[in-house]
Amino acid sequence: MPLTRPAELVRLKAPEADLRRNYSRTFWSCFGISTVLLMAFVVLFPDLDADAYSKSEKVIIQIEDIPETRQERRPPPPPRPVVPIASQSDDIPDDATIMETDLDFGLDDLPPPPPLADLAGVDLEEEEEEIVEIWRVEKQPEPIKNPAPEYPEIARKAGITGTVTVQVLVNKKGKVEAVDILKGNEVFHEAARKAAWKWTFTPAIQNDKPVKVWVALPFRFQLN
Length: 224
What we know:
two-stranded antiparallel sheet, 18% helix, alpha+beta, TolA/TonB C-terminal domain, 3 helices
């Protein structure tokens, strides 16, 4: 039996799967829809403008040179003198001291001494007397007459109490030559000063001789 050549097969596409067949219709449909949307956008937003591009400006901060300031250090204040206080209590240690007092009498400015003939009847003991520190004396002065100060009326009415420390210079005869207020309420200063001038002492003794010394006296003002 002779062989026969098969007939050629014709491939057919479904209409919905043929893209070339529907290309023109799809293109114009999309174009129309895009045109309608663009026109609608223009109608709805007629004043819409794109913001112009603005170049950002650089902010320059200029720092001026500030002159350097230096704060000068003040020198520290000189140390305050320590004022030891002497008391009449028997419990005071032997090494208790009274404030040292240096007096400048200006001897360099004094005129030359008169001739010895002119010194007749002049007490030579009236020469300058050295003030001795109380801790150096062999025997300290003891009070003979020690009147209490009067209580200030203004302090009494106000109910003010306190202690005033007074420093007195006791001479070779045991009398007070100078009075100085060391510390205490100012309302009692005048009363304490008046009372201190009335005190008398036995002289301080050094090398079997009377000497001048400073003595601190505490006056206590208390209300009963």
